[in-house]
Amino acid sequence: MSEQVAQPEKIAVVGGGSIGVAFALVFARAGHPVTVCEPEAARREAVPGELGAKLTALAEAGLLTESPAAIASRVTVEAELTTAVAGATLVQECVPERLEVKRSIFAELGAATGPETVLASSSSAIPASQTAEGLPSADRILVAHPGNPPFLLPVIELVPSPLTRPAVVATAHGLYAGAGMSPVTVAREVEGFLFNRLQGAVLREAYALVRDGVATVEDIDTVMRDGLGRRWSFMGPFETSDLNTRGGISSHAEKMGPAYARMGAERGQHDPWTPELVAEVERQRRALLPLERWEDRVTWRDKRLIELLRTTEQSAPSTLSAPSIPHRLRKSDHDHNN
């Protein structure tokens, strides 16, 4: 997922739970020295084993360019916060999702780090403006919200507060991108940021469909797993819609927009796609993919789906009753909700 950085910077991770361990792996794999701060002795003892298990799984899949031991050697575990964050270019906070806990930690981090150290919160929903309110270090605090687990889902949302300096966002963006992640900068604070608002929209409709007796839980998961999810594994909803209709996304909006508006109104959400909004989406899509290249991109999409189909069929159990994409990878409990 990442190549080693040319000039590694020290990274500190505050919190030795599953998200903290995953972030330590991401940065150590990219060549950074990483210190994990964990006050609980039992968790400090568990971190090396959990890190090693994840690295071994990646090595067995052929996804490492170094030995697990070489990557793990870059990670140290400390009990004291001041020691852990000393000299760090970026501090990744991974503590429980409680505002009072985060505010306390960031007050300590501000006092223990220099004026250029990036202070990043893994928060799923608490905006940086709430965490940083009244703190002297507010101008270098932002949310850096990952998918779960970060070493397998590279996307990370950078959500600055109105007080966060642009240079801090730029430094964070460069560090995450250099570590093989896919950072996106959210233009303004909204609850749930991008990841959970998109995920929440799907979950709200899924729950409503079960409630209304339209489909079972398994039926809905099958539609996502064998349909929408298969496409969304390599392209997003805008590109999907753009490639689904000849003429691109404006043609798709013309044909499907009224139906989607009726579906939204049925749920009490009157939020139609206005001509101005469609024009803006069309402008951004055409900047990414000129319409004369539409056919080539459709061919690319079909090839990717063929590759996925081949991979899933090759790995599927040899039973007639097995689903086309079996539930082979089930998540264990995590300390994060994405």
Topology:
Layout: E1 11-14, H1 18-29, E2 34-37, H2 41-60, H3 68-72, E3 75-78, H4 81-85, E4 90-93, H5 99-112, E5 118-121, H6 128-132, E6 141-146, E7 155-160, H7 166-178, E8 182-185, H8 195-211, H9 217-232, H10 237-244, H11 249-266, H12 275-288, H13 294-315
Parallel strand pairs: 1-2, 1-4, 2-3, 4-5, 5-6, 7-8
Antiparallel strand pairs: 6-7
User: Helix/strand/pairing class, anyone?
Assistant: alpha/beta
Give the neighbour order of strands across the main sheet.
3-2-1-4-5-6-7-8
| Number of separate domains | 2
**CATH architecture assignment of the largest domain:** 3-Layer(aba) Sandwich
Helix proportion range: 40-55%
Assign the CATH topology of the largest domain.
Rossmann fold
Strand residues, percent:
5-15%
Q: Provide the CATH superfamily of the largest domain.
A: NAD(P)-binding Rossmann-like Domain
- H and E order: EHEHHEHEHEHEEHEHHHHHH
Low-pLDDT segments:
318-335
Average residue-wise pLDDT: 92
